[in-house]
Amino acid sequence: MNTLLPRQLRGFVAAGGLATLFHWLVMAALIAAGLEPVLATASGSVSGAVLNYVLQRRLAFRNAGPHRVTVWRYIGSCFGAWFCNLVFFFLLNNLFALPVTLSQVVTTGLVAALNYLVYQRLVFHEQTL
């Protein structure tokens, strides 16, 4: 796998996967503790986004600019990704009448690909060594 995918893409996938797992674990723990599911997923999402930022800088975008710049770009990209998720899911589920699970899987793939491009070109825009 090391020769098939560049280090940056491997790091992006690993960071995103770990952050998603963390989101789901926080959400499940909060639901088990009695929190309403919508609030639990919102809290899990924020927790996952924070972990994702840290992991993306360590695993995928090691030469990124300073935190004072990248963190604000990252927060903006989170809002953009949330909006794209909403639009893509709505279109797939309502306009194209795909089932919920398939709509979310396709949406997640589309948003992940978009996030990689946004992170690479705008958020973490690595400095040349």
From TrEMBL:
The keyword Membrane applies. Residues 12-124 form the GtrA/DPMS transmembrane domain. It is found in: Membrane. Keywords: Membrane, Transmembrane, Transmembrane helix. Its main location: membrane. It is a multi-pass membrane protein. It comes from the Bacteria. The keyword Electron transport does not apply. InterPro entries: GtrA_CellWall_Glycosyl (IPR051401), GtrA_DPMS_TM (IPR007267). The chain crosses the membrane at residues 12-32, 38-55, 71-92, 98-119. Belongs to the GtrA family. PANTHER family: PROPHAGE BACTOPRENOL-LINKED GLUCOSE TRANSLOCASE HOMOLOG. This is GtrA family protein. It comes from Marinobacter aromaticivorans.
